[in-house]
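Problem 12. The chain below contains 155 residues. Write out its predicted structure in token notation.
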Amino acid sequence: VKQSAPGKKKDFSPQLTGPDAKDIYSPAAPIGALAVPLYPPAALAAHAGRVRVVLQITIGVDGRVRNVSPSLAGIPFLGPFTPEFQAAAEAAVAQWRFEPAEIRHIEPRDADGTTIWAMTRSEKKEMTTEVAFTFTETDGAAQVVPEISRGGPKN
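Solution.
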């Protein structure tokens, strides 16, 4: 998964207040390719088959993964290689980097009789999201597929 940071110039002009002001949320966006965990070698040798690991991650205002924990969104895998699959998934997400989530405050302004929307300020926010890894093994060949949900700001 590759995604580059937006190159838009930010307008940090003084804040205007008004009933038409809006806040726009932009979720964290991956920077570069995201590391994918390796299928644990001992599990591969034992033909452990298909395993799904679901994690909840918090992305800090600096774009780094700050917290990783098992997610309640997935049915936990309980098997002889549970710690190895969990560790592989956690090691991969620890390497991920993001453009942090941001809330942009925009307000209408008059520009020669035309209403334009201008950003008056922005604030980087922590974001919590779910990530799942599906580990599969067929005839000794391993594959790992990541899925990232769209998260929201952390209050």
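Discussion. Residues 82-94 form the longest helix (13 residues). Students who got a different answer should revisit the alignment rule from Section 12.3.
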